[in-house]
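In response to reviewer comment 3 from the previous cycle, which asked for concrete evidence that the modeling workflow produces usable outputs, we include below a single protein chain processed end to end. The sequence was submitted unchanged, and the resulting C-alpha cells are shown without manual editing.
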Amino acid sequence: MTPPSADVAPTNPLRPALPSLRRILAMDAAGMIVFGLVYLLVSGPLARLLGVGDKLVLTTGGLMLTIGAGVALLARRADPPAASVWLVVAIGAAWVAASFASLVLNWWDTNTVGTVWTVLQTIPVSVFALLQLAALRGRT
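The workflow returned the following C-alpha cells.
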C-alpha cells in the first residue's frame, strides 16, 4: 500500500482530500505577509480610501506582517504542533470577531469602502481558520 502524499491529507471516502496542514499554513502566511506589506507601504492612500486613520492601517499592517511571519515559521515545521495551530485558528477567530465588533460598535467610523473592506477581509481569514481546523481533525 502506498502512503498518502505529503501534499494531501489521507482521504476518507466520505470527504474530499484537503491540502496538507503545512500548505494551508503557508498560504495563510503568504497572504498575511503580502497584505501586511501593502498596508505598511501604502498606509496613507489606503487609510484615505477606507476612511480611517493612518495609524490604524500601519498598526494593522504591522500585526499582519508579524503574525504572518510566525505562521510561516510554523508552516516550515515538518509536523506543526496542534497547540500552535489552534493558536493560529484562535487569532483568526479573534480577528474576525474584532472586525465585526469594530463595525457594530463604530470604533473607526469607516466610510462605505472601509465597511465593505472590513467585511470582505474576514472571508479569507475565516476560510483559512476552517481549513486549518479540518486539517487538524484529519491528522487524527
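Residues 36 and 61 are 4 Å apart (CA to CA). We consider this sufficient to address the reviewer's concern, and the full set will be provided in the supplementary archive.
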